[in-house]
């Protein structure tokens, strides 16, 4: 389990580093360190901020940034600058995958009215998407997005980026 996480961690650090165009700080690298389940009772926020362990905070020259890792239910009623909604497997379905037609503006309202499960997915994702003031991002598995889905989303105004492509630094 630890070895798997360490490989994933390095991939994440490489991707994020390529996005920000600079090397990551020790503080940001530390946020992704492996912590054994037995050690969770001793988790503390870094000395530089007084936040729970699911919040990464960084004070930079342009101000302070806080990134909270939470659930949609955990942020219900709160407003944020930006929100990333991750695809979730619930009730044997991937929520964003089944909502793609609605996100592209051509969902079947009759199907929605007949399916309590689909309505549940819609309500959760709606809550997640209405929290941010500036930016909302949806992340789903690339295999859940067909070429037709991609074209429909882009035609409806979505910007779609493939984050599995890591560009080399110049």
Uncertain residue segments: 39-46
**Number of helical stretches of at least 4 residues:** 6
Characterize the overall form. globular
Largest sheet: 2 strands, antiparallel
**Series of H and E elements:** HHEEEEEHHHEH
Distance between the termini: 34 Å
* Helical coverage, percent range: 25-40%
Strand order of the largest sheet: 1-2
Oligomer: single chain
Strand content: 15-25%
Our Rg estimate from Cα atoms comes to: 18 Å
Instruction: Determine the mean pLDDT.
Output: 80
How many DSSP E strands? 6
Helix vs. strand class:
alpha+beta
What does this molecule look like?
With 170 residues, the protein is of the alpha+beta class. It is built from 6 helices and 6 strands; from the N terminus they run ααβββββαααβα. The strands form 3 sheets. It has a two-stranded antiparallel sheet with strand order 1-2. A two-stranded parallel sheet has the order 3-6. The chain has a two-stranded antiparallel ribbon with strand order 4-5. About 5% of the residues have low confidence.
Outline of this structure?
The protein has 170 residues and is an alpha+beta fold.
Topology:
Layout (H helix, E strand, L loop, with lengths): L1 H19 L5 H5 L24 E6 L2 E6 L11 E7 L2 E2 L2 E2 H9 L5 H6 L1 H14 L2 E8 L7 H9 L15
Parallel strand pairs: 3-6
Antiparallel strand pairs: 1-2, 4-5
Please describe the structure with a list of short key phrases separated by commas or semicolons:
170 residues, alpha+beta, two-stranded antiparallel sheet, two-stranded parallel sheet, 6 strands, globular
